[in-house]
Amino acid sequence: MPETVTPVPTADLVDRYGTELRVCDVQFRQFGGHRGFAGRVRTVSCHEDNGLLRDLLRTPGDGAVLVVDGGGSLRTALVGDLIAGAAQDNGWAGLVLHGAVRDSAALADLRLGVKALGTIPRKSAKTGTGSVDAPVTFGGITFHPGDILHADDDGIALLPTPS
Ligand SMILES: O=C([O-])CC(=O)C(=O)O
Question: What reaction gets catalysed by this protein (predicted)?
Answer without folding.
Answer: oxaloacetate + H(+) = pyruvate + CO2; 4-hydroxy-4-methyl-2-oxoglutarate = 2 pyruvate
